[in-house]
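Aim 2 progress update. The chain analyzed this quarter is reproduced below.
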Amino acid sequence: MKHSLPFSVVLLFPGMLCLSAVAETPDTLLNYSLNEVCIVQPRAVYYSDAFKIRTFGREDLASVTARDAGQLLSSVSSVFVKSYGAPGNLTSLSFRGTFSNHTQVTWNGFPLNSPTTGDADLSLIPLTIADKVSLVYGASGSLYGGGTFGGSVDLTSSPSSEQGFSSGLSTEAGSYGSWFTAGNIGYSGKKVLVKSIFFTRNAENRYPYKDIYKYGSPVLTLHHNQLRSYGMFHTVSFNINPSRQIQAGIWYQDRFKNLPAVMGSYVPSVATQKDSTLKIFLRYVRTMRRSSLVFRNAFFNDNLFYNDSVSRVHSDISAQQYLADINFRNIAGKRLTWDAGGTFQHVQAQVDSYGRRIAEERFAVFTAARIDLKAFIINTAFRLEVIPSIAPVPLPSAGIRKNFLNNHSYVRASVAAKYRPPTLNEKYWQPGGNPHLLPEKGYTSEIGTGLSFTEQDRYNLTFDLTAFSTHINDLIVWTGEGNFFNPVNYKKVWARGAEFSFAHSLVLGSIKIRQQGEITAVRSTSTAIYDNTSGILGKQLRYVPLLNAFYSGTVQLRRLSLTTSVNYTGKRYITDDHSGRPLPSFILAGLSAAFQFRAHTLNGHLYARADNLFNTSYQIIKGYPMPGRFLAFGLQLGFQR
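Predicted structure tokens:
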């Protein structure tokens, strides 16, 4: 930890996801019981009735703990996950025709996006530490802050609520020398909840690929692609009394990665990259009869060291963040609930290419209200972002949801202002950085409808159809020629499209059938350019597929289950003016089988999985070949006492 502030400074600016005590009145803040303590929905969820949200809970994540967040989202949704090769390489996410720095990724309410690049590397987020993952499509800027033109991915980590001691072991062996192992131990009592997780991942990642950028398209083996990673996560929650609770957590992780040469290269790569991260959070909750006060603060320390002895490039990037949040919620009556609070962020970074240490602060104040009229739910929110040297940015939002047919159908609509402040790289990178860049601003509007058919526990079928439109002004783009590029507020972008999703379950005696699918069609184009470049107007943005889709189906017979999945990614242009040959569309199929068993207090899960079943040759990013057929075998054991 190269730089630090007194921890008391952090405590001055707290806030959090609300946890609270049991209340006896029906107009309570609480949602469900957890021993003697209850959980209050965080504001980003509580005020998002008009937004599309997909959530994956403990049961959904139990069978994918050996994967990272990028692998999960690419297999269970139609959002565009951009990966630079095998698991362990840089992976980012794009929603609804926007860029990866337009998606905010949060952990227990704190943004994980890098202050230097604005992106969040999903390959650095192991699912073994997550208890819940939520996809928030078009997330509101007034609830999340900057960088949500596309949406948000929210991860939650918390101790188990099941009483007693628990422990577990998970291991998976796969193709290309891949190996993952994780262990956990926990305790849940009336006053204290504790959980510890340890994990490690190793892979050689040597796989064959066709190099279409070399004469004759030879089949080669990818070298210098090894991955070594390990980490730990600890969390403890202490119930002081029924109305006060403290929770703390720490997440440490190290990753060492060899970086292979790109396709078409005749020079072997010797480049390496080491990432290390330390994340600590603390939150305190005080609940009253009709209100709650939540304080939350965190410290993040992220380091990246890149080394290439051939090109003599050595880059050391170190960034620290101090984040804090305070949130007050009040039930003003049977129909009205409101929140108010503020956030603080201190960022300091030491980057070789900046030439000096950079420190910045950001502040925000917000308020939100929810009116429940039974037939209608109305949400409004307002946030004011304050960044030194930039004029304060107001972020209003409003949404409405109408339920009918005994809550079997709904219509929802929302509009939300959005913005993204320039990253540290965009402002301070030398040469080229521009500290006078304007923030990106715009808004998103959407309308959606859904329908569900349910027959007790035997049958369920749900549909959701959403249309959306996002306008981005002053989009920041790196422009230039040769070795010199500089970021400028370059153009306006309009992203619009539609999403259709469904989920189906059916019980036929001892047979259970589950299906789900989603398809996204998006048109994302430049509508105005701030120079004389007119050749890109009206053309699809680079690396934005017109169409993405996925389907998965599971048949379960008692303890045995079989799952099949299909993912489609559409054609992607690699230049703004479409001058280069686009990357073709591709289809990936998967197949897995699992068997669950139980012996007294021991639960077991044995599985086999085949990814890219038909050995499709494809690229997501030009020059970075993806692995072919991948076979994996895994075992999970859980003990509860």
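The longest strand covers residues 484-508. DSSP finds six helices and 34 strands in the chain. These observations will guide the mutagenesis experiments scheduled for the next reporting period.
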